[in-house]
């Protein structure tokens, strides 16, 4: 008999997120009244930030059993970190390899948590959170993040949550120096038929409340961003029954 996909953990996270969305709506409604209804993104940002901050200790512990710490330690020079959340990766960087880290996310609710964590690990002078997306070139340019200026771009489970993966990856490719590294650990659509169907069934609730998509073909969008020196070195997880199957690697932009 075929083994069923493991959906217990995703369902738990969806339910937890529902509760955070309800709490965020109540808090916003108490402060702003009926105008809250006209600002769903504000409620969503607050709820997702609370969710990711709450689960951060458990998620960090899980990631520490994976390739993630090794990937983070490869980051060097001027680094652009996409979607840092509450700062889960700050402790993983090799400070001796870091010139500066620009961490960007359009959700501005993470600033205080990130600042506290950066200070705890003595990276406050080398780490800056910028509340914007990678497409906000005017904002980034003012901070010194320009085309061909980054040695490393780090993306850990971020491309599942952006609006347009292709657009984000095109910007990432532009910002990397020739020979620069795109370091990533992402999840995407399963290659197992039953698991892929399960992902499609869960995805409306997952994307609505957790904030990312289960069934994107992220590898194809990464590879389509430009010319990479080593596209054959992308690793693919071997669990066909995970609804969050991982891909990862360190891609080098062609010089």
From TrEMBL:
Keywords: Methyltransferase, Transferase. One of its GO terms (molecular function) is S-adenosylmethionine-dependent methyltransferase activity. Residues 80-184 form the Methyltransferase type domain. It holds the Pfam family Methyltransf_11. The keyword Zinc does not apply. GO terms for biological process: methylation. The keyword Transferase applies. This is Methyltransferase-like protein 7B.
């Amino acid at each position: 008999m075929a083994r069923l996909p493991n959906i217990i953990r995703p369902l738990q996270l969806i339910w937890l997120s529902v509760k955070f969305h309800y709490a965020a709506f109540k808090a916003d409604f108490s402060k702003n009244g009926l105008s809250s209804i006209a600002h769903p993104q504000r409620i969503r940002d607050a709820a997702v930030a609370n969710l990711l901050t709450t689960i951060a200790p458990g998620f960090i512990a899980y990631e520490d059993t994976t390739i993630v710490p090794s990937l983070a330690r490869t980051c060097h020079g001027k680094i652009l970190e996409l979607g840092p959340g509450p700062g889960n990766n700050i402790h993983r960087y090799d400070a001796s390899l870091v010139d500066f880290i620009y961490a960007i996310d359009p959700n501005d609710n993470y600033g205080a948590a990130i600042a506290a964590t950066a200070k705890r690990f003595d990276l406050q002078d080398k780490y800056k959170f910028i509340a914007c997306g990678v497409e906000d070139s005017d904002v980034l340019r003012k901070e010194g993040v320009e085309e061909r200026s980054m040695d490393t771009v780090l993306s850990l489970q971020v491309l599942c949550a952006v609006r347009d993966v292709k657009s984000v990856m095109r910007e990432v490719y532009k910002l990397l120096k020739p020979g620069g590294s795109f370091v990533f650990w992402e999840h995407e659509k399963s290659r197992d038929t039953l698991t892929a169907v399960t992902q499609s069934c869960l995805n409306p609730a997952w994307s609505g409340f957790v904030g990312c998509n289960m069934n994107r073909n992220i590898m194809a969008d990464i590879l389509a961003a430009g010319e990479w020196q080593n596209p054959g070195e992308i690793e693919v997880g071997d669990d066909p029954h995970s609804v969050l199957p991982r891909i990862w690697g360190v891609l080098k932009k062609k010089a």
